[in-house]
Structures are given as structure tokens and as C-alpha cells.
Amino acid sequence: MIQISKVVPPTTYELAAWVMTAFALFFILKFNLLPALLAGLLVYELVHMITPFIARRLPARRPSNISKLWAVAILVIIIVSLLALSGAGLLAFFRSESGSVTVLLAKMAQIIEDSRKILPSWLLKNLPADAITFREQASDWLRTHADELQVVGKEAGRAMAHILIGMIIGGILAVRDAVAMDNFKPFARALACRGELFSDAFKRVVFAQLRISAINTMFTATYLAIVLPLMGIHLPLIKTMIAITFVVGLIPVIGNLISNSMIVIVSLSQSLGVAIASLVYLVLIHKLEYFLNARIVGSQIRANAWELLIAMLCMEAAFGLAGIVAAPIYYAYVKAELRARDLV
Question: What is the pLDDT of residues 111-131, one digit of tens each?
């Protein structure tokens, strides 16, 4: 028999804080502020992770110690600068001739066209007729999702500005938390609790997915840059595929499908056998990763794969690509709120 635990009724302040939090999360997705939110939370969590090491070297009787304030402020500047440089470097790589995504797409289109003679008929029905058709379909998809792809065209500058502002806000909040006392009034305290739960959900999801993406990228790089060359097989644009594997790997479940499809198509440039071998290797690796993911996600996100898929499906239908990115974080936050009330 299921035992029903007694739940403490929420206060008026908590109800108001939940309503404001729900509105804020909706507003963020509706008006394309997700990059700013993620950038701010990333800086905030990185500072909080490193601050304890500073605190050990700067013992203080009072949390408002001026030396600690300066140390945390310098740390914020360093983290924001490194993140900005890393983002600029990654963007420059993808725009360069050796790492161009456009070149990769063109290469994939040409490979599909050249491989039509060796592919089975049932597969050809689901592929573009030629490279020109592939490019036209890709262009149509990009036009359809132009509003959602904030890093494309005229939205790139706006998105970068949002990210920079978000990082600055996250750094300011981190500095404030490092030196300020908790003297919140009831409503402010309820809002602060919502913020703590959401930032914790972000940390659990992002850092768990970062570890998963790093593991996936390591196995993929080993296969593309070591295993295949030792067998005398050299695929084109290996660096681009490795970089894309890491970036899309930050998206749960769907990221692996994107990277795997890319690698299998490029493997067709050598032969159908190499493409099948790549597919088998990737499937076996992801079976191994499944157990690692279950351990990482199970201990950090506390959500099963099917739960995340349903959340991502619903969020994509409501908010498009941004919804896919936000879904794991939003879902982890909702579960954290329910656990805090002892409801799940």
C-alpha cells in the first residue's frame, strides 16, 4: 500500500514566488534571452566552485572582508574573459577554411550524391536526389528556423551582446553572494530559494552533460583520428567533426544522433563498408556510454532518458530549438521543486 506523506501547505510568499518564477522562465524563452541566462548561470556556478579555494587562503572573520571581495572580483574577470575568448575561438574555428561547417555540409551533400550507386534502394528514397537538392533543403530548413538560430545573420551580434551581459550579471551576483549576509525579507527569501534551486538544477544538468559530451568526444576522436588512420583510412574534415561532436553533445540524446549521422555520411566518402563500421562502432560506444550516462545523469539530474525526451519534445513544440536546450534544465528545476515539497 502506498503511504501518503503529509505535505506542508506553501505560504503566500512561496506561491507568489512560484508564479513570478514561471513567468520569468516563460519570458526568457519567449524573448530569446536563453543565451544570456545560460551564460550568467555558467559564470555564477564557476565562481562558486572556485571561491572555496580562495576562502581557504583568505580566512576572514567577516564575510565582507575586502580582500576576499577583490579576489572574487578578479576571479570573475578572469572567468568571463576566458569564456569570451573560448567562444570567440570556437566561432573563428567554425568560420575558418579548415573548420567551416558550410564546407562540411557541402562535402556531405557531395558524398550523398556520389554514394547513390552503392546505397540500397530503400535508403535512397529518404535521401536528396543530388547535392543541389540537399543544399536547397538545408536552405529551406535554415529559413524556416531563422528566428530560432540566434547565431545566424543579423541575430549574431544581438546574441553575443546578450551572452556578454549575462556573464557580467552572473559575475556581479557571484561577487555579491561571496561577501553579503542573508538578510532577505520573506518574499525575497522565497524568490532566492527558487533561484538557488534553479541554479542547482543548471549545475547538475550542464556539468553532467559536459562530462558526457567530453567522454563521447574522446571516444569519437580516438576512432576518427587514431583507429581509422591506423587502418589506412583518412576521412576529410576530422577536426570539424570532432568539434561539432563536442558542441552538439551538450544537447542530451539528440546531440548524439546529429553527430553520428554526420560521421556515418562522411564515412561514405571511403566506402559503404567504412560507413557501416563507423555506425557499428558508434552504436557500441553509445551502448557503453548508456551505462555511464545512467550513472552520471542518475546521480546528478535524477531523471530517466524517457523523461528528458518527453520534456524536450514538448518544449520543442512550444519554443523550437531553444526549448530543446532549455528542456533538461527546466525539467530538473521542476523536479527539484517537487522534491523540496516531498511530492516525488
Answer: 666 655 555 555 555 555 554
Residue 59 lies inside a defined structural domain of this protein: yes
Query: Going by C-beta distance under 8 Å and a sequence separation of 6 or more, which residues neighbour residue 311?
Result: 327, 328, 330, 331
Listed in sequence order, the residues at least 6 apart from 133 whose beta carbon sits closer than 8 Å to its beta carbon are: none
How many structural domains is the chain composed of?
1
In the numeric block, which cell numbers belong to residue 131?
547535392
H or E element at residue 14: helix 12-30
Single out the residue of 244, 268, 239, 240 nearest to residue 255, CA to CA. Answer: 244
CA atoms of 285 and 254, how far apart (whole Å):
16
Mind listing the pLDDT tens digit for each residue in 17-65?
Answer: 999 999 999 999 998 898 899 888 988 888 888 777 766 665 554 544 5
**Residue numbers of the domain that contains 87:** 12-340
Question: Does any domain span residue 272?
Answer: yes
Contact 282, 264 (CB under 8 A): yes
Torsion of CA 158, 160, 161, 167, to 10 degrees: 150
Domain-located, residue 151: yes
The pTM of the full predicted model, rounded to 2 decimals, is 0.72
